[in-house]
């Protein structure tokens, strides 16, 4: 299992245990994490799975692909250099302990 902590805009933290090899979006939706919608089911067509990877984890998650950057332009909340689509982050053992911040809004 991969542990992931989500930090809401108000500072509230939620830690879940996710299945290895699932995406971050799938794990968040499966655990009813408020703030990740995943409307398109991971087809990279909605940007409602936007999150900000904690700076300490950016090296391990890597950055967004060019297609992901393009889709993030449609995100509802402010996009910054930590922004990723959570459906494009696959949870490997190297990401055990991952911390991500949830945006103010998704739609
Ligand atoms: S779930 Fe739609 S872009 Fe990630």
UniProtKB/TrEMBL annotation:
Reported cofactor(s): [2Fe-2S] cluster
GO BP: any one term: P450-containing electron transport chain
UniProt-listed InterPro entries: 2Fe-2S_ferredoxin-like_sf, 2Fe-2S_ferredoxin-type, Adrenodoxin-like, Adrenodoxin_Fe-S_BS, Beta-grasp_dom_sf
GO MF: 2 iron, 2 sulfur cluster binding; electron transfer activity; metal ion binding
Source superkingdom: Bacteria
Keyword Iron in annotation: yes
Entry-linked SUPFAM superfamilies: 2Fe-2S ferredoxin-like (SSF54292)
Statement: the UniProt record of this protein carries the keyword Iron-sulfur: yes
One Gene Ontology CC term in the entry: cytosol
Keyword line: 2Fe-2S, Iron, Iron-sulfur, Metal-binding, Plasmid
Chain ranges of the 2Fe-2S ferredoxin-type domain: 2-106
PANTHER family linked: FERREDOXIN-2, MITOCHONDRIAL, FERREDOXIN/ADRENODOXIN
Family: Belongs to the adrenodoxin/putidaredoxin family.
Name by which UniProt lists this protein: 2Fe-2S iron-sulfur cluster binding domain-containing protein
